[in-house]
Design a protein that fits this description.
Distance between the termini: 15 Å
Radius of gyration: 15 Å
Strand order of the largest sheet: 1-3-4-6-5
Helix content: 10-25%
Strand content: over 45%
Number of domains: 1
Structural class: alpha+beta
Number of strands: 6
CATH topology: OB fold (Dihydrolipoamide Acetyltransferase, E2P)
CATH architecture: Beta Barrel
Order of helices and strands: EEEEHEEH
Shape: globular
Length: 122
């Protein structure tokens, strides 16, 4: 059985791109997926490596994206209660639109194969 998900939606905020203490890049962002006149379903997404760098550089609130990856369930405690939440670990992101003023930059990055960065599953 495969654990694979593909979603299309809009970035809910600018991605938070950071580095670990040993210099590995990671980014976190949310994607709203829905139909017109309905409340969206929100997906929390994390990505790593070059993909995280690209999201930090080109991702902006409202951008349309296609995200591919796998779902993982995380456990945490809040107010003394154990809880679980689902998170999407992205191994590929494709921008589906161009933002004003950034179209040429993104087009060049796509041509160079930088925007549709992918990582092996694992």
């Amino acid at each position: 059985m495969a654990n694979h998900i593909t979603i299309t939606g809009r970035l809910g905020k600018d991605p938070e791109a950071r580095q670990t203490s040993d210099g590995k890049s990671w980014a976190h962002f949310s994607v709203a997926v829905g139909r017109p006149n309905q409340d969206p379903n929100w997906f929390e997404v994390t990505c790593f490596g070059r993909l995280a760098e690209v999201m930090g550089q080109y991702g902006e609130k409202g951008r349309r994206v296609l995200v591919q990856g796998r779902m993982v369930q995380e456990s945490y405690e809040k107010d003394g209660e154990s809880r679980k939440a689902w998170k999407l670990i992205a191994n590929g992101v494709e921008f589906l639109d161009f933002k004003k003023g950034k179209g040429a930059e993104v087009a060049e990055a796509e041509a160079a194969g930088e925007v549709e960065a992918t990582l092996p599953e694992g």
